[in-house]
Design goal:
Largest sheet: 6 strands, mixed
Radius of gyration: 18 Å
Helix content: 25-40%
Oligomer: single chain
């Protein structure tokens, strides 16, 4: 199981959002850090086939990002996922399950299982417009897991979650990382420190750090914040 990102780039007119990044990701949790505008979301959207790169290639076990086979192993939670406010929570998950090609029996089992997993089993019949921000985020996490993805891409997944929910989510991701490739982007450095097997750090469209974080002279948070200080000078 391997996600291969080979010299991937994305340019918008005069701005290079992602600049020739190459990565090979295998089973485990990868924590992606970077300031706003660093290129994190652009990179993740290219990995998910939402954006077409200007240059370079992306593949998962030799499946190109544009293929149905690739999409079948992919789970994606964007920063702002689309939903229908009038839908009930469980109806939204059934709808997403149909889009992902699950049979009715598979969908019924997965929707029930995932509503319980994200602590929404008693709220599944409520309309999404009545959900709090944290509940909507948990629903988004559930939809990303519907097809038991081998590649799970999560953009700011803990936004809106309270501390207790974040701990539960971190435990879930840690467990999923034993059998899947998980790429997790967040501004919450402590989440990365707790669950990431490998830390990735972006700045100005480039990868400035890649590897296991071994705390030495400074903490990961101190190192991360120092990038902002250098940027503002």
């Amino acid at each position: 199981m391997e996600l291969v990102i080979d010299r991937i780039s994305k340019q918008y007119q005069n701005k290079i959002a992602v600049d020739r990044i190459s990565l090979k990701l295998q089973k485990g949790v990868y924590g992606l850090l970077g300031a706003n505008g660093a290129g994190k979301t652009t990179l993740m959207r290219m990995i998910c086939g939402v954006l077409k790169p200007t240059g370079g290639t992306i593949s998962f076990d030799n499946m190109d990002v544009s293929t149905e086979d690739y999409r079948a192993v992919l789970g994606y939670l964007p920063q702002e996922f689309g939903y229908y406010p009038e839908f009930r929570g469980e109806d939204f998950l059934f709808y997403m399950a149909a889009l992902k090609g699950l049979s009715k029996s598979q969908a019924k089992q997965k929707v029930s299982e995932l509503l319980k997993l994200v602590s929404l089993e008693s709220d599944g019949k409520r309309k999404i417009k009545t959900y709090s921000g944290g509940m909507k985020q948990r629903l988004g996490i559930a939809q990303a897991l519907l097809n038991d993805p081998k590649l799970l891409v999560l953009d700011e997944p803990t936004a809106g979650l309270d501390p207790k929910e974040r701990v539960k989510f971190r435990n879930l991701i840690e467990e999923l990382g034993k059998s899947s490739i998980i790429l997790l982007s967040t501004h919450i450095v402590s989440d990365i420190e707790h669950i990431a097997d490998t830390v990735l750090m972006m700045k100005d469209g480039q990868m400035i750090y890649q590897g296991k974080w071994e705390e030495g002279k400074e903490s990961l948070e101190d190192f991360y914040l120092r990038q902002f200080e250098e940027e503002s000078k």
